[in-house]
Hints:
By secondary structure, the chain is of the alpha/beta class. 37% of the residues lie in helices and 12% in strands. Bound molecules: FE2/S2 (inorganic) cluster and magnesium ion (MG). Keywords: Iron, Iron-sulfur, Lyase, Metal-binding.
Amino acid sequence: MTETPAPKLRSRAWFDNPDNIDMTSLYLERYLNFGLSLEELRSGKPIIGIAQSGSDLSPCNRHHLVLAERIREGIREMGGIALEFPVHPIQETGKRPTAGLDRNLSYLGLVEALYGYPLDGVVLTTGCDKTTPAMLMAAATVNIPAIALSVGPMLNGWHKGERTGSGTIVWKGRQMMAAGELDADGFIKLVASSAPSTGYCNTMGTATTMNSLAEALGMMLPGSAAIPAPYRDRQECAYHTGKRIVDMVREDLKPSDILTLDAFHNAIVVNAAIGGSTNAPIHLAALARHVGVDLPLKDWERLGHKIPLLVNLQPAGEYLGEDYYHAGGVPAVVAQLIGQGLIQESALTVNGKTIGDNCRDATIEDAKVIKTFDDPLVEEAGFLVLSGNLFDAAIMKTSVISKEFRDRYLSNPEDPDAFEGPAVVFDGPEDYHHRIDDPSVGITPETLMFMRGAGPIGYPGAAEVVNMRPPAYLITEGVSALPCIGDGRQSGTSGSPSILNASPEAAAMGGLALLRTGDRVRMDLKAGKVDVLISDEEMATRRAEMEAAGGYQYPASQTPWQEIQRALVGQMDTGAILEGAEKYQRIAQTMGLP
Ligand code: FES
Ligand code: MG
């Protein structure tokens, strides 16, 4: 039996190359080892990789070990051959010092696998925060047909009749402990209740965000991002994903056909409407650079800020992943945005149709969970992009600004968008944890708290630590949040109204390095400015002193990869990629075959 050979299958260069029969024999003899016949390997069947991100080290993605069987069946059904292989694990909460460190490592490993082995297409098994961008980035660089399959969120967490959401409950529990309302055992039980099944974080954290955006970008079957991991629909989706990738190879539908400027603009708009994570601009900037699309950070404010929040998921809202799926998931959100002319409808997706055709008629099935455009949860919910003498670029997620915060900082009738206060500066998360509850640090309700030394170089990979809780003595007085500003990231599950991802970071001698506790800082959200109120001369003096002393100090590297990444990584406003890697584009086409 012979399948119709797809045009220019790259796997033929390994297994069926009459010009190089010496090497072909070598390639063939070992791949026969797992039971494929010579006829199969030489039949012209597309060879499809399953990039397996699930493992015991990656519990969020572990269910992919089960789903891969259904992917395989789909691939086989359509006349393809499936080859499953491991992807470097990244687990957000377990990896020290940060999971962010490993996104570029996982990317590098997958580029080598996709480029260097006989693969015609690939299924990317996405899930936990950085696994999704790492795999999309690699598929973009190599540019063989690729389709993402989300592992899906965990089931909803419950505690005493209330929904408990991943991550979000940790920030809440820490506040309750600080206020003396919860002991250590109670805290652990409360947090554990948020994770009742296999799957990734059930909140609108970075995992739900990045998988929703993978769908909005067109890289995942429509309606598939939100399906909870344990649902039978998830297994069915794995089967259809496996079937579809074989046709994508035959159609030669590649990431570069899908990841266009229109697709990225759609993702920015969708991110605002879902209340997506502040990690999204970093990952989309990285993906855009690897596929050669120009996506300046300012586009997030230009296209996204005016978009209202439609999805009522924690941390900005009340509900969780199962509710999101039952309410209609990404297509229901996109349909609302299409109704306002906010989506580039002609953007192509992995099913061969446009996002407009896929989503135009999708309906909201639960109006408590997905709101209509006319009755949103929050108006103008996208990010602001800020700058000033402390950094060139930083972002702020406005959809999580609490009423308390707005009343305290934004409702001054004379200048309702500006706030000024004394800075308290922490150098890295350890410094913060040691000193936060020490009254001699002098934190008051007027303080702006700063976290530095937490960027891609300083705390390699950038730590999710900018969302700092106030000291316990202020929490007991009812102050639940202070403005936080820093060169680190923050968990997508946090509701903190922080100014974060500040670039360049202190470790790269950005202005934050020069800030001192006690300096007055002014933030003006309307003007998009954050400035320390000292003269340029004083800034220059401080800079000269610090440079003479060897620059901003940060901990030494503990592993070879930390040293390599620190030497090559860029700043978060441009995606924190390995600088120089972006010149390798579409290498399956441009670099020829080995
Ligand atoms: Fe893996 Fe949240 S920790 S998805
Ligand atoms: Mg995270």
